[in-house]
């Protein structure tokens, strides 16, 4: 493993993903897709989505904080110059969820997914303009469009059925922008040269406070019923998603181009659909196969060798 200096500096990143990084992104997207099912199962047992988001950040903050102390990083755990970017990343993360859950109450799930997954374009455009080494070529742009086309194909039935509202759609676009800006802030600031555990602790700790405040302001019910389903769903979200998968994401984003990593996020809703079919008995349509081909082809185009 490449050495890391006390300042947290890392070697110059490669301009594309290797097989290990690509496989890790697939695993992370599968984890995030399963999270969608876990949230639905907990909602069915009476746990409000905003309460789940707040508890997830609180629980993961405790876990990551204990790990940081156990690794002997008590001294110098918060490097100079990272505080404001770290707070900004945490606030953007909390804002994304506030916009997401508000938007979901005003539009349909299919429309929400399509508009939310404009986020990789925010990362691609921002990285192209602002971050050295993140410029995209023609093939990468075509790949993003193909992958996004796969998402549209997967949720086309829900789009043509109508429903939703312009306000809800705009809130989902705003959530996508907040998601993209979080990635760009981490990649384009000193956080990209900071130990991933520190970056994760910032995001979790700040978002935990912000999400509780937002939930209270929005009048959301923070009570969590302690059923077996809710306990299992929250354990997966706290340990599997917020602690382990987010740490893996920050490790990758510190080493590889953000725009190429973000292209893999188009797999997340497809994993969610597949998991819902396997766990909840939801039906799969032929459009799902078309979507999978388009997304996989798009990811290859984004990450193809120059």
UniProtKB/TrEMBL annotation:
Which SUPFAM superfamilies would you find in this protein's record? Multidrug resistance efflux transporter EmrE
Main location per the UniProt record: membrane
Which superkingdom heads the taxonomic lineage of this protein's source?
Answer: Bacteria
Residue ranges annotated for the EamA domain, each copy included: 21-153, 167-303
PANTHER family xref list? EAMA DOMAIN-CONTAINING PROTEIN, INNER MEMBRANE TRANSPORTER
What the record says about family reads: Belongs to the EamA transporter family.
Q: What is this protein identified as? A: EamA domain-containing protein
